[in-house]
Amino acid sequence: MTDRAAPRHPSQRLRSFRPYRGPESSNAVWQVAVVAVLIVCSVIASASPALVHAAVTPPTDAPPVTLIGDSTMAGMAWTSTTGDDPRDVVGSAYKLIFDAESCRRLVAPSCRGRFGYVPMSVLPVMSSKLKGRLGEAVVIMAGYDDASITDAVDKVMTEAELQGVIRVLWLTYRTNTDYVLPGGIAARTLYGSHNAELAAAAQRHPSLQILDWDKYSANQPEWFAWDGVHLTLTGADALATFIRNGLDAQ
């Protein structure tokens, strides 16, 4: 059952994450729960698909980048405070568009999120809402709601290549969790499969760069909420630094 409670303060949302049981796939695989919110930030007027994120101003010659994610990435927005907005770690060096949504899937229709609506999936975000504005690099942290990501990764990569994106940085999926998904599937099993599919896709797409968030965060329980997937403020800061380092590396 979808949680339709009114949005609360980010810290309250982190304390009250509940599994969302998405629609069954043809193979009866339950989709994983995510809770996220659309936050888009750049220097484009708010009438456009992006909202102004004015806490920091990048250099005038900063390259444009786009971060697209589900609730795992959305922790960078949810945990932000007046004095600590994790998005600023990236936004201080890059012209940033940040777009993260609850229950977002990669290509298949997304599930209904915590805030009562079904968000646009990653591929249509790229091909319509943000078409021509993705920038030099796109960072993907989504797929936790997908039963399989093999075909989806190929489609997302094809779209990025068509739009001239130089690099797609794709974060691996958390396996260091004891969380059991609805239907009895161990999260570590599903996400381990995702990581194998992602590694295979990198062999097919030279512009796909894997950022091993799974390994980087393996021994950091304080970075995560009870499910071992969603972020605390400490984890959101760590994720932002991890992404920034990945972007800076090339």
Structure write-up:
The structure is a single chain. By secondary structure, the chain is an alpha/beta fold. It is built from eight helices and seven strands; from the N terminus they run H-E-E-E-H-H-E-H-E-H-E-H-E-H-H.
User: What is the strand tally?
Assistant: 7
Please state the structural category.
Answer: alpha/beta
**Helical amount:** 25-40%
Low-confidence stretches: 1-54
Instruction: Estimate what percentage of residues fall within beta strands.
Output: 5-15%
- Rounded to the nearest angstrom, the distance between the terminal CA atoms is 43 Å
The helix tally amounts to 8
List the keywords:
250 residues, alpha/beta, two-stranded parallel sheet, 8 helices, 12% strand, disordered N terminus
Give a quick rundown of the structure:
The chain has eight helices and seven strands. It has helices spanning 10-15, 71-78, 87-91, 122-129, 150-162, 187-204, 213-216, 233-248; strands spanning 41-42, 51-52, 64-69, 95-100, 137-141, 167-171, 208-211. It has a five-stranded parallel β-sheet with strand order 4-3-5-6-7, with helices on both faces.
